[in-house]
DNA sequence: GCACTTTTGCAACCCGGTTGCATAGGCTCC
DNA sequence: GGAGCCTATGCAACCGGGTTGCAAAAGTGC
């Protein structure tokens, strides 16, 4: 595979040769990246588009499958860059592979932005339950709380 | 390393050549294993003893370090056997390596036996909060709940 | 065009976990 | 106490997800 960073060609491969100017979504993608101080390269636009196109969280392997023409490392670093700039957050749902989901516009990845995640045991999709804050718990005395990871397993609405 | 299953020698290595008959703890270890239908071999007794000697959860790597003379695979399978027979349960605290902790005597690893786990961000020890049941949460409609993994990070009583 | 920075590709590595297979240990039955 | 059997152990190799080092390509400013 030859490196190829030209945006329209990259997008063309994905989008049946519809080039940049014909993408109405393009501006919002661009904007979403630049808002978070991420330079909008071809791969990054594609990855962001993937995130915006589906509700379920996305793992590195998913991206590898979806973008045959992009390298694993590049996709990996794209995820890291997105995470650093708080465009996405990582989710450890216990399946052994990290997944990522878009942060909400207002998100700053502070403890208040933490929320419950849901893993469907049938379709293996993972969802952010953004409206389900993590409940308070009582720790033993002399233990102090920093952060909480809460993953609920069950059946999603499609699988039940 | 030569395989060696003789219990007293194994225990001797660990216990400065105090042999089986001189262990007051021996019977309770034996008992705890046979209660769960696990044949009390040398390695198993040692591993169980390790679990009973400390409160914090134990990972495979810990066992490898503690028992130079025992093979990784054997220790791995010992953990699996213990888990299958519900003598211990596994804890995924997000550190990348599974840890294990003794089940309570009454434990049957049913959803009711689930509890919160605590990972200290300083000493990296993980504890069962057996007295901290996992709080109820409200799922979106059409989602059904199966199980929950809840890991709290913070400072333990020794590290604060 | 040229020099410089950033992004991408490729290969190799790391680590925790897991498997296949051979051997040793211990147990039963005679 | 030996033959046969089942289990536990050891060893080596593998696997998958993640990560790093380094070189080439692409983008940027002049
Ligand atoms: Mn989320
Ligand atoms: Mn526990
Ligand atoms: Zn589902
Ligand atoms: Zn601590």
UniProtKB/TrEMBL annotation, chains A, B:
Pfam family, one: FUR
GO biological process, alphabetically ordered: negative regulation of DNA-templated transcription; regulation of secondary metabolite biosynthetic process
Positions bound to Zn(2+): 120, 123, 156, 159
Protein name: Fur family ferric uptake transcriptional regulator
Classification lineage: Bacteria, Pseudomonadati, Bacteroidota, Bacteroidia, Marinilabiliales
Family named by the database record: Belongs to the Fur family.
Listed cofactors: Zn(2+)
GO molecular function per UniProt: DNA-binding transcription factor activity; transcription cis-regulatory region binding; zinc ion binding
Keywords: DNA-binding, Metal-binding, Repressor, Transcription, Transcription regulation, Zinc
Cofactor info, note text: Binds 1 zinc ion per subunit.
SUPFAM superfamilies to which the protein is assigned, alphabetical: Winged helix' DNA-binding domain
Coiled coil start-end: none
InterPro entries: FUR, Fur_C, WH-like_DNA-bd_sf, WH_DNA-bd_sf
């Amino acid at each position: 595979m030859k490196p190829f960073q030209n945006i329209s060609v990259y997008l063309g491969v994905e989008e049946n040769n519809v080039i940049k100017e014909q993408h109405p979504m393009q501006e919002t993608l661009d904007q979403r990246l630049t808002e978070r101080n991420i330079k909008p390269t071809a791969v990054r636009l594609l990855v962001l588009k993937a995130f915006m196109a589906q509700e379920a969280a996305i793992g590195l392997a998913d991206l590898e499958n979806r973008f045959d023409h992009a390298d694993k490392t590049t996709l990996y670093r794209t995820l890291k860059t997105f995470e650093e700039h708080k465009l996405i957050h990582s989710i450890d749902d216990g399946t052994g592979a990290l997944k990522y989901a878009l942060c909400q516009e207002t998100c700053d990845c502070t403890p208040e932005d933490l929320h419950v995640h849901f893993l469907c045991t049938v379709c293996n999709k993972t969802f952010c339950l953004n409206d389900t804050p993590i409940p308070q718990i009582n720790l033993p005395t002399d233990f102090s709380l920093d952060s909480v990871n809460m993953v609920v397993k069950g059946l999603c609405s499609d699988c039940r």
